[in-house]
Structures are given as structure tokens and as C-alpha cells.
Amino acid sequence: MPADPVQSMTRGHPTSDAQMAALRRSLGLDKPIWLRFIDFVNDALHGRLGQSWQFQQSVASLIGSRLGPTVLLMGTATLISVTLGLWLGVRSGWRHGSLFDRAASGVSLTLWSMPTFWLGMILLVTFSVGLGPIPSILPANGMSDPSISGALPHTLDVVRHLVLPSMTMVLVVFAQYVTIMRSSIIDELGSPYLLTARAKGLTDADVRRKHAVPNALLPTVTVIFLHIGGIIGGAITVETVYSWPGLGYLTYQALKVPDLPLLQGTFIIFSSSVILMNLVADVLYRILDPRVRAQ
Amino acid sequence: MTGTQADIRHPRPSQLPASGAVRAESAKPPPFNAFRRFVRGFLARPSGVAGVAILFAFAVLALVAPAFIGPAQLDVTKVSGPLLAPPSAHYLLGTDESGRSVLALAIWGARASLSVGVIATALTVILGSTIGLLAGHYQGWLGAVLMHVTDWFIALPSLPLAISLSAVLGQGSASITIAIAVTSWTSTARLVRAQTLAVEARPFVERARALGASNSQIVVRQVLPNVMPLILVSSTLTVASAILSEATLTFLGLGDPTSVSWGSMLDSAFSRGAVTAEAWWYLLTPGVAILIVVLGFTLTGRAVEHVLNPRMVK
Amino acid sequence: MTMLEVRDLSVTYRQGAHAVPAVREVGFTLAGGEILGVAGESGSGKSTMAMSLLRLLPVGTEVSGDVTFNGENLRTASWGRLRAVRWAQASVVFQGAMSALNPVRTIGQQICEPILLHDKVTERVARRRTADLLDSVGVPARRQDDYPHELSGGQRQRVMIAMAMACRPNLIIADEPTTALDVMVQAQILRLLTDLVSDANIGVIMISHDLSVLADVCTQLAVMYTGRFVEIGPAAELFTQPRHPYTQALTRAFPRIGDPRSRLAPGGLPGDPPTPGQAVAAGCSFATRCSQVMPDCGTRDITLWPAGDAREAACLRVLPEYPDPGEAAAPDPAVAGDVPSPADGPAKSDPAKSDPAKSDPAKSDPAKTDSAESRPAESRLADGRPTESRPAESRPTEHRAGTDPARQADSGQPAGQSAGQTAGQPAGQQAGQAAILEVRGLRVTYPSRGGRGPARAVDGVDLTVDAGEIVALIGESGCGKSTLARALVGLVKPTSGEVHYRGTGLRYSNSALKRYRRHAQLVLQDPAGALNPRQNVFDLVAEGPRLHGLTSDLNVRVRDALALAGLRPPEHFLSRFPHELSGGQQQRVVIAGALALEPSLIVADEPVASLDASVRGEILRLILNLRNDLGLSALVVSHDLGLAWNIADRVAVMYLGRIVELGSVEEVLLRPKHPYTRALLSVLPDTVADRAPILLSGEPPEPTSIAPGCRFHPRCPVAGALTADDPRLQLCRGRELPVISGGGRRESLVACHLATETEPAPMVGSSAEAGG
User: Fold this and answer.
1) From the CA atom positions of chain A, what is the Rg in Å?
2) Whether this model's pTM surpasses 0.90
3) Which of A121, A184, A223, A252 to mutate to test the interface with B (most CBs of B within 10 A)?
């Protein structure tokens, strides 16, 4: 194994070879890799995620304590970016080729081309550290200030802490929804049923709202849920940049060691959430599309 | 089966007098017709031309970098510049925490970033296209198995998977490349499979079969030429996201600690206090480089897509 | 009382810097209760014209002229005013109801929508009215909450009609309302629409590519070409006595079953329908394809001139100073009595075959006119223009190999065959001629899917195709005809049964199939789809020879195949890509690709279904010529009985996986025995003998649920008329019919328990007796 956790765990402590070997045995690192993989799958299936090497705590309880902040951050970011992206996408697609469309496409494309963590650092320097004339207006680290007490002040403080990380994620992620919704609307534009709706005497806005959007949403919904994997990726780096105490930051911490049981644990949680979201997308699609529902 | 010559009841067309006059030796049609049309269409899109120009500039810069950047500028022990100095006449884009020129680092970093992006994309496209084509064409058990494997991989979130992979494979650009390829081939495979299915449903594939084409001949002569444009488009877009992934993985500390790339620059900028020191030049330069190159690939890919898929032009 | 008056209506599309005129100076009037039919080929501007009336065209389209509707000029009305008129006063029935209905909303919601919008009633009232509307179009009201995909094609089109009637409009614009529907369903829909509008005194503008459909239901007819009305007048007169050469050609393009002049002589027009935006030269835009062109046609401006009672035509020939084009081409009901008997029909009605010299047009016409009714042919001769019934001569691309003595000596078969035909025998009846293709007990069953039973697509078929014979296989969509065609060329492996090629059973190993494919080739319906868009014509035609290793003389082979398929000179086409060709040319490339392998059998699946009427005849004639000149056999699959009359020697009528009637074309089409064949014939818009249409209820059932006994009995009008205790009804319901076996060459074979009961009154008096 190239990156040796035993070495990084014992770094700075004089350790004999025998001690290292004992440690390896206790961690199960002496077994061949395929055997370790089978053990791991077996344990995971039984809900045993093991002990973190780094925190000397059970992986399950670590994940449990970090789950909330991640859900808060990802939920907020997803909600905002989906709303923003779909709205922009509908408007861009309906009048594709217009100035609005070109501006929206250009901005979202540029933002999509940025590494998430880099945008995070730029926002951090600009708004939190304060750059030049811009004062430091938002907190840089963590999720809340421990010195603030009381329910309302605490909530407001969390919101203040949430602004920069969620803004970073929204800015990078919403572009995908713009693109999907836009092309989805453009695909519908030529549909004869829109001509029917126009012939019925509906206004342009009603044709768009009542006929084009419901159809264009169908492919978009699936993609939104399939993109949850990408959002998780964003969460890892954003949480790292802002030291947000969530699963992403935990992954980063586990990676630095590397703390394999913890890494495996977070990986399992991320994967199952993606699988869960795929199922949700499937169910939702069935509800939304009568053609699929019938089967 | 009665495949003898005697069965053919009408004469070979070549024996027919009607065609006698036109039997002149005439060359095959110009092969570059389609290519020329493509180039003309592409040149008509300024954003695509800009994208290609960006890529060309960066590629040239990365290739000629060894001519003027050497250990003297890159080796921490051999440089003598001021630490974290803002841009000046001598250091156009300032210096890093060890006193190296950020400009020189950024130019040198293009080599690692571009090569990892391109190699990972090549692996991705080869793997994804092959699996997608096979899964689309052979709809029996082979296609089902391949599709299940793909679906299984898609269910895995890509960054955590890449992190786990690099953690197992160890630090270094090779493991990053493999991690990127392993996590991104699925989308190419799905795309290619969908397009293969769409192409296979078109009557010209049935025509080819009726003319006597075998499975492999259908894949190579009918399906592949029609899937190729999509593969081309998808690979330019894949390079873009591969470069982003490379930066992310390197930033998380999974890259080769000894080599300079845009991701590793950002990693050291972040972990060595550039943020608190407000060393914006150190943060901005590699990030903007990534942004421009990714944008370049994306613009190029979209322009190619528009030219090859006239339906989108509308 | 004029409800709609259109004057000088012109529509111009903008394509970048180009202005593309789509409609030019169109004018007409329409009163309530009238039906104006507008016929034209694709790109003629007919749909654009219809959509421009309610300003339903894309943004940036320029419209000029006046559209006065109920006293209001719709072209200049405000958008708000226009929205109020839309649907409340003028509604639209679109083609393709599947896509014209919103897939994610129920049909009830979609019918209610305009009612709620324009009539401002409560939801309950709107729903009740929707139920009544659905009822009036024959869709059960309980289906209100169904989605479009849950209805059949015919039901969806009924829903479209109900929707159009929702706000009790004065005007309905029907844009190809029956295109893509089966013949039987098409007849149902047309009858429904005409009944409804005549009851409610609604004016209708009906757009169609099918002139014969319009002629049947319309009061007025207009024919469009390159954006102009080239002829307009009362429907019946215009159709029977067209004045404009284009209308004449179009009417000939629709075969009239029973008319000897169209027997084995498909009608068509040379050249391709012009595409909109194509530069139009001065003078008449039809001049390039016109058979009666005069020097002045290229110079004088053309407009509509009066051409008889309430009629106008845009042709110089209607002006007194020019010679009259005559009414040579007018189909004359009188000729109906002159149907050739099955024995000598093909020979007589196809002079090309009966005249071995085949070079002198003057010679072949008398050969044709030996029939009693010679007047039309003579008048055509007098005009000195090529006639449609001489396929061999009317095209410069005619393949003359048949006259080459050396060639005939080489390949005994075709020579012998043409000798036989000269003796007045159809190919199929020649003694000693072995079947080239024979299927026995063929079944193709697809495994069950989605809770339904297995689909018996082909459910027991015996069929033979003789050398040099053209067999037409006719049936509604879903009857299994395409599956059967694919099984014949080995693309679908039969579940049971055998395919024999020249007496040898087809094996399904890769190499055996590949060898078979040099002999049997497939031509598909949609030529645009059948050609790989990334290959040029050379590669497309060379595909087959390359696959079979015939590359030594590839250049020659490709050129010859192209020339045979009528693409001359071949050099002109070699480097072109499919999208640069017209539909007719594309289909010729497909045929050339098949010919390059020198097959002896061609299986063509709806070869002309996607082509324009004027092109259709040219492609059919090509298939006919290939048979006549090369001795090629063909099985042509179609939904169109008229096609069989145009080119086939024998015809097989298929219903739900079985052939229900098989025999010579004359026998089956003129003296149909099976109730199904009779129903199909009766709903053809234009047959020589006008009989009351027999409308079959419902739509063709699924091959997943085939009725026991006679598979047709649930829809059979004859069985339906039997009393419940009639023992014959028990027969229909309970006893399976045997598979039709044998050639059906001498007399037609029919799979019906009641066939003797249903012997029809002679369809066309004298011919039935002649046929005996």
C-alpha cells in the first residue's frame, strides 16, 4: 500500500518495527487487499462501519454528528441553484438567441468552468478576510460562533456562516440546471402541441407556463437528481475551504491521514445517498410523466 | 443455399450497353468534402474560434516552457525571490511562499494539468465509447451485463470514489489520472450507448444488414461514423471536467507532491496562508488559468456540437 | 353568405438574409357549410397558407394581403383581438394528433381549456360539455381523464375534432387531418368531420397531399404548386376534368382501381417537387415539369384565369389564344366497363411489354388502344405529348437493355419471359416457371411484453413469388406485413415455417444468410432514413459489393446500378450526400444499392409511402421496368390497394398475421370475395365503381389478442349481420380457417367461412362477365 496509514499515524513517535507490525495486524492491514475488501463489504452490510483510526471514535457516530450540517448546506445550495437555474433556463430557452439568453449562457458557462474550491477561496478572501476596500463582512470558518447563545441569535449566526459556502456551491452548480432546462425547453419549442395551445388563443406566457414547462421539466427532474453526485463533490471541497463541520470536511480530514475506515464510511454514506436520490428520481418521474406511469 | 453464378438471371449491370458511355475513369469523390464543410461551419462561430485559440496558446506555452523555465525558477532551494511578494516589474504575477515566480509556476503547471486532463480523457473516451458501443449494439446478455456495470458505477459519487481510489493507489499524477478515468467513463458510455441505440434504430442499419453486413461491419461502417461526432464533442467536454477534477484532487492533496500543477499551487496557496495574507495574485493566477483552459475546451466542444448537429442551430 | 374572404395572401419566410416566398397571392372565399380542399405536394405552401390565416406562423414571417373573417381583417387585427378569435370562431385540427396533444395533460383538460378561456364558464359546465363533445365524436365520455397516449390513433384524431368543435366555431382549418391513419380509420374520420360540419354549418378548409381524398369530401378544390393556387373550382369537376397540366398529372398519380389505363402503368411526373426558396424563374413555375410546355410559358406572367364554370386555372392553355390542353387525361367513368380480363390484362395494358421493339412511341400506342375504349389514348396521341401509360418511353432514363439481343441470348430467362408476355400471358401464369421464393407455414411470434400475450405478428403464411413476378402484399398497419417482408429476406428469423429460395430452404447461419442476401434485397419505406447520412452516393451504392468482396469492378458496378435506377448520368450523383437529394432520388439510390448486388428478388416495404404523389409513380414505374427488363421478381408491401393495381401481378391481402385473400390483381380487386378486402376497397376515396363504403368499426386489433375462429369475425360486417342463432355464425366464431395454400394464380383463394355467401354483385358489370 503506497500511502501507509500506520506510518502517518505513528509519525513523530519513535516506533519499532514490531510495534508497527502489531498495529498493522490490529487494523487488519496484514491481510491481502481482496480479503480486506470482503471483510469491509461484509461489515458494511451488517451496519458495522468500524472505528476511526484518527478520532478513536466509531465511524457511525462521527458520521451521525456531521450529517446535519452537510444536509443543511447541500439542501440550501440545491434548492437555490435549482430554482435559479430552472428559471433562467426557461427564460433563456423560450427566447433562445436573445440578448438575455446569451448573457445567461455566458455567465453560467464561465461560472461552471471554475473549480469550486477556488471560487470558495476567492469569495473567502473577498468577503471574509476583506480585500482592499471591501471590509470583512462574513465569517470564514465553521458553522457557528460558540460564543453566541440563545436560539434566535444562534440561528442567525448559522445563517451568516451559511451564506458564503452555499453561495459558492450555487454559483458553480446552477449553470448545469440552466443548460439542461434551456435545451429541454428548446427541444419542446418545435412541438406541435404548443401550436395547438397558441391556436386555442392562449397568451405566450400561458403557452409557456401551462404547456411547455411541464413537458420540459420531465427530463430536467431526472438530471437534477442524478447530479446529486456532483453536488457531493462540491460539498467536499467547499466544506474543506470553509471548515464547515460536515461530511465533506470529515472526508478531507480522513483523507489527510489516511483514515481508511472513516473514508470508507463517508464513501458508503455518499454512495447510498446517490442511490437513494436515483430511486427518488425514478419515483418522481413516474408521478410526473403519465406515459411512464401507465406501464 | 443456391449461391452459384448461374442463378443470376439478369446480366451483370456492367454488361449493359446503357452504361457504356459513362465508363470513363473518374476518380472517387473528394474525400475532404465533409471536413471542409465542418471547418467552414466552425469558423462561422466566433466562440468556437476563441476556444481553439485559447487551447492553442496554452498548448504552445506548455510545450515550449522547458526552453525558458528550469530548476532555477522552480526549485525551492534555488530561488531567491521575496516571499509572497505582490506583482512587480520583476515578478509580473508576484511570488509564492517560497519566493518562486507565480507566473513561471503557472506556465510550468500547465504541463501537468493539461497532460493529466488529456490522458485521463483519452482513457475515459476509449473505455466509455467501447463499452457504450458494445452495450448499444449487442442487446443480448452482453449489453445487459455492460449496462448493469455502468449503472452500478454511475451510482457511485465521482469525487468520493476518486478520493478513495487515489487513497488506495497512493499520491501521484498516475493515480489521479486513473481515478479520473474510472469515475468519468460512465457518462461517456451512457451517452454513446444512447446514441448507438438511436443510430441502430435508423433504417440504414437495417439496410446494411440486408446488404449482408455482419455485426462488426455494422458497428464499424454504419454506427461508428454516426457516433463519432458525439464522441468528439463529449471528449472535449470531458477534458474540461478532467482538468477541473485534476485540480480538485490535487488540491485535496492527492497529487504528486514534487510536481507543480495548477491544483497543487492552489493547495499550497490555501494551506500556506495565502488566504489570510491576502495574496490574491497567488490565488488568482492558477484559478484563472484553469478557468480559461476549461472555458476553451467547453467553447470548442459546444461549437463542434453546433456544427455537427444542425438541429441545435435552429 | 361569405364568411371568409382571402385576397392576395402572400407569406415570406426569412432565412438569414434570404427571403423565401412560401405562399404567393392566394385568394378564395368560403361560406359556412362549404368545404374547401387545398391539395399540394410537400413544400407547396399549403400548410403555411392555412396557418397564416390565424397568424400561427413563426415570429419574423412576413404576411401580406387580406384575411377577412366575419367582417374583420385578421391580418391586421391586434394580438388580443386575434386571441379572442382563435378557437372561439376559428379552430384547427392538426395532423398527427399524438404530437398535437400535450402528452402530460388529460384529454379532458385539453378540451376544457379553450372552453374555460373563451366561454368563461365554470369548470363543471366545461366538463359536461367536454363529455358531450367526446360523445359526439364517438369517444366514450369516461375517457376524459385519459392521457393522449392511452388512446388509439383514430381516437386521438377524434379528440382533436372534438376539441376543434369545443367553442362552436364558424371555421375549422383541418391540416392533413387523416395523414398517417389507416385507410379504414381515415374513412371513419373523414365521415365524422364532414357530418359534424354540415350539421353545424361550419366552413372547413381541408389541407391534404392526397387529391383523391379531398375530391371525395370537399365542395371546392384548390391545387397549390410553388405557393400558388394553380387551379381552383368545384371539387367534382376539377377532379374529373382538370385543366391545369399539374392537376392532370396529380389526378393520374392516384390509381383508379378498375381503370385499365392505370393498370400496370403508374402515373407520375418527371422531376422533383420544387423546394420552397428555390429560385423561381420568370413565367410558369411548373414549366420545368410540364408535358405541355410552350415557348410563352417561360416568359409570360401567370395568374389564375377563368377556365369554365366557376373555375380558374393558372395555365396559358386556358386562354383562348393558345391551344387547349384538352381533357385527355381526365379519368372517364365510361372506361370502367373496359376492364381487361385477368388473362390478358397486363399484356394489353402495358404496351411496353407487348411491343418488343419498344423504341417507337407511335407503335406502342396502337398496341394499347386495341381495347374498345380508344378515344382518350387517341386524343393524347393527337397532342403529341408523351403519355403516362407508356412507362418505357416517357422517361429519358429508361433502361433499354431489354432490347439488346445479345443480352437476351445470354440469359435465357428474361428472354423467355418476355416471349411469354408477348403471347399475352402474365408472368405468373407461365407453365414450368419455378417459384423463386416460397414460404410455407411461416410464423413469427414475439415474446409477450408488459403483461400482454405473445404477439403473433405473422401467424401462418404460405406464399410464393414466381420468377419475374410482382406480388403485392396489402394490409393495415400492424397486420404483420412488414414482419413478413423481413422474414422473407432473412432479417427476422421465423418462429416456425420455412423460406425457400429456388427450392432450397434458407438457413440462418451467418454465411448462409450473407450468400442469400446477394439474391434477395430489401428496399425500405423511408429513403432518407435508409441512407447513412455520412456516406456519399458512391459509398452508399458500393456498400453491398464491398461487403461481398465484389470490388474488382466497383466503379463500373456502381455507375451501372445508378444508371439502372434512373440516376443519370451517374457521375452527377456520385459525390453527393443523401441530404442533397430529393426524396425520389434518395429512393433511387436505395434501389441502386440493392441492384449493385444483382439480386433476383426485391422485397420493398412501402417503397413509396413517404414520397410525394407525383414522385410515387416514377418509383413504381422503375420497379415495373426492372421486372420487365431484368426479369427481377418483387414483393411489394403496402397499405394501398391502388399500388397493387399499378404494378402487381398478384395480390395478397393480409389481416392480423394471415393472408385472407390471394389471387391475381384483377380477380381480387375487381371481384373481391373476402369481406375485409371488400371493405378496404369500398373506402378507397376513388374507385371507378362508386359503392357505399363499408366502414369497419374500430381499429385493427393487436396481434397479441387474436380472436378464435375466423380472426376477422369481430369486425366482419357480413358475420355481424347474421342472427345470433345462425349456425354459420358459430362457424365464424368457433372454427379456425386453414392457411391459404397454393398460388392463387388461376382463381383467387379466400380464407372466409362465408365466402360463398358474400359473392358480391358484380362490381363492374361487363368485366365480371368477361372474367367469368
Assistant:
1) 24
2) no
3) A121
